[in-house]
Amino acid sequence: MANPHSDHPAHLQHHFVSSEQQFDAAKMGMWLFLVTEILLFSGMFVAYIVYRTWHPEVFAKSAELLNPFLGGLNTIVLLASSFTVALGIHYAQKDNKKGLVINLVLTFLFALTFLVVKYFEYTAKFEHGVFPGAAFDPHGVSHGVDYATYNIPYARQFFSIYFVMTGIHGFHVLVGMGLFTWITIRALKGEFSSAYYTPVENCGLYWHLVDIIWIFLFPLLYLI
Amino acid sequence: MSESASGTINYLSHDKSIKSWLLTLDHKRIGIMYLIAVSLAFLAGGILALLVRIELMAPGETIMSADAYNQAFTLHAVLMIFTFIIPAVPAVMGNFVLPLQIGAKDVAFPRLNLASFYIYVLGALIALGALLVGRVDGGWTFYTPYSTSVGDGILFVTTGVFVMGFSSILTGLNFIVTVHKMRAPGLTWNRLPLFIWSIYATAIVQVLATPVIGITMLLLFLEKFLHIGIFDPALGGDPVLFQHFFWFYSHPAVYIMILPAFGIVSDLMGTFSRHQVSGYKFVALSSVAIAFLGFLVWGHHMFVSGQSATSSVVFSLITYLIGIPTGVKVINWVSTMYKGSVQLKTPMLYAIAFLFTFSIGGFTGIMLGVLAIDIHLHDTYFVVAHFHYVMMGGNVIAALGGLHYWWPKMTGKMFNEKLGKIAAGLVFFGFNLTFFPQFIMGAQGMPRRYYDYLPEFQGYHLLSTYGSWVLGAGLFLILGYLIASLVNGKKAGLNPWGALTLEWTHTTTPPHPHNFLETPIVTRGAYDFHLAKDLFASGEEVSEVVTSTTH
Questions:
Q1: If you count residue pairs, one on A and one on B, with CB atoms under 8 Å apart, how many are there?
Q2: Distance from CA of A151 to the nearest CA of B (A)
Q3: Residues 72-131 of B with CB under 8 A from A
Q4: Is B47 part of any domain?
Q5: Best to test chain B binding among A21, A40, A42, A59 (most B CBs inside 10 Å)
Q6: Cβ separation of A36 and B210 shorter than 8 Å?
Q7: Are B296 and B318 in contact (CB under 8 A)?
Q8: Is the distance from CB of B202 to CB of B172 less than 8 angstroms?
Q9: Measured between CB atoms, does A41 come within 8 Å of chain B?
Q10: B523 in any annotated domain
């Protein structure tokens, strides 16, 4: 056989019998991966619940230092990005390459916005000695808030949990940006169509999970 | 693929370059690479075990300092658990056998499969990096605050375990999807070999439990590195919370170790008894039941750690429940032998040895699940003996059975059957001599992990150490004749054991790079020997079947 792909579509890997089988397998694999992601975060949610139950007042007071406006803004940004990625999959299914690329780029930009906002939130904390772990030493006054009054027992645990959870979540956003770059390049090459859009669909699933984890993080850390 | 070469080409011979191995996407070659890697880990862990046993031959210092002893047993445990026993059966035999047994060309995600091998190697190297920076102490359980207060080696070990966890997750994920989506036509769930059922149950545990050890290792790393105060009581953290996190993974991990062993033994029982495995559906579903219950018993590691008495009672009760599906398996294996016609080939000797050693391991596990008895026995050699009877007497003995069983398929060569039987005897005798005395001294109060001990325990320690030498001799004998078989072993036939699963009946030995020239169509269950009389009617056994499907 001169052309090994002559008898089947180029995207179909040799060990699969059909495109449907390949699509089903990839999608099932992605769902299983999302389950592992949920379990990874569930460990941190358990730590949060345990320490919040033991020290509710400390957690309520410490949460005052978080900025619900920026957190809320990021929630809207992520929700918008979930919409654009879903729209992207829709355009992929409709063979609309332009719509797909535009929405993938928009999703990427929303993700970038999220991280920029997060950067400003983090640096505002670091400036006043609010770090995870041993370096935790709140001090100074800013916008009428005296940080030193937050130097109380178990505030360290709250901020450790805050930085670990949002840090790992932020890492997932960063990975998502990498994925969307890769998918956008492939989309520009015209690799996706209504016959084959598995990677777009799977990246979309991943992105929805990143979004939904934030939907839980935001109220737990910023609001209650 | 070309039809003309179908008679001679196999996965080992079609391309022999180093690059073709290192970058292979073939599940069989990845399985062989895992076999080499985990064997090296087993060798390193085993040498450490022999050194620990020599140190314990006499009270006081024998060959190493107390500090070196602590590091030796810690490293023995870390190597054996994370780099050997967890990947051993799923990653070696699961990779090699699973796609063949379900009639697939490969696993669902071959690239992910290769990635998980390299992630495993990377994780193992990072964990070993701990040796370069200094002490690794505190055992494989990393209990805080001790683990966060001694040495920086823990930073490497936790990172290594974290990384290897990804490998385990990706392997499990791959296998679940493969079993769901890649089965050959006609291969219904009720016809699956029991090895597949147990690898499937194992994969579920790998996927659901491993992320939790991931986050635990990450938090422990941050505890040591940044002092985040979650687990360290000096900073307001809770060490019992660490134990909950740790055992939420590490108890299910015990089933990652033992479930695949159950699968191998089920296959061996069916094949070498020439009989349908009794209670097939019960044996199959009991694996899933064990996987499920395994998630609900982690608290039995913490009966004396200060968890509430109510928790302890509940965890104790659920621990007893695990005895039911396990008992279902043991009874059905015995019944299979009783009804069948047993052929005592080397792999079957391991299956029978497994029945004996695993049953002891299982029963003593129930004893340790009893709240009052556990208060007396916890942290003694009784516990050490119990889990070695499960890990080594269960997993390793079954894995040796599986290795001998599939060796002809992997390599195309037969090993020396006579030496095989002698080695199986040495392993069985040496194993029991090593660990049975530990039950007795544990019941008499010898604490585990101690460097020094009272003179009255020396007799038991001596027996145990002598046993470790017999066991070691048996294992080196196996290594010797298996390597010799590669050089001068007899050429293996298509189906030397007369098995009915697809890897023996529908492909060549060693298998073709694409496993099957034609997708097999399955018309009977994995052990339906009564439906397969035609296979054994002539002296040719199954070669006819193979040739008829390859044309």
A1: 105
A2: 14
A3: 104-106, 108-110, 112
A4: yes
A5: A40
A6: yes
A7: yes
A8: yes
A9: yes
A10: yes
- Cβ pair A17, B106 in contact under 8 A: no
Q: Please state, in angstroms and rounded to a whole number, the distance separating the CA atoms of residues B195 and B526.
A: 10
Q: Give B276-319 pLDDT, tens digit per residue.
A: 999 999 999 999 999 999 999 999 999 999 899 999 999 999 99
Q: Which contiguous run of DSSP H or E holds residue A141? A: strand A141-142
Question: pLDDT tens, A22-57?
Answer: 999 999 999 999 999 999 999 999 999 999 999 999
Chain A interface includes B184 (CB < 8 A): no
Token duo for residue B214: 């991931």
Q: What is the chain B residue with the closest CA to A133?
A: B228
- In angstroms, the separation between the Cα of residue A190 and the nearest Cα of chain B is 23
- Here the tokens at position B266 are 């089920």
Q: Given an 8 Å threshold on Cβ–Cβ distance, is A25 in contact with B177? A: yes
What is the residue extent of each domain of chain A? 19-223
Nearest to B384 by CA among B328, B442, B331: B442
Residue B235 falls inside a structural domain: yes
In a domain, B391, yes or no: yes
pLDDT tens digits for range B126-155:
999 888 887 788 888 999 898 888 878 889
Contacting residues of B for A133, CB less than 8 Å apart: 222, 225-229
Q: How far is CA A200 from the centre of its chain?
A: 16
| Separation of alpha carbons A147 and B197, rounded Å | 58
Cα–Cα distances in angstroms (integers) from residue B365 to residues B88, B358, B370, B543, in the given order: 23, 10, 9, 45
The answer to whether the CB of B385 falls within 8 A of the CB of B436 is yes
Range A19-223: architecture per CATH: Up-down Bundle (1.20)
- Is ipTM strictly over 0.95? no
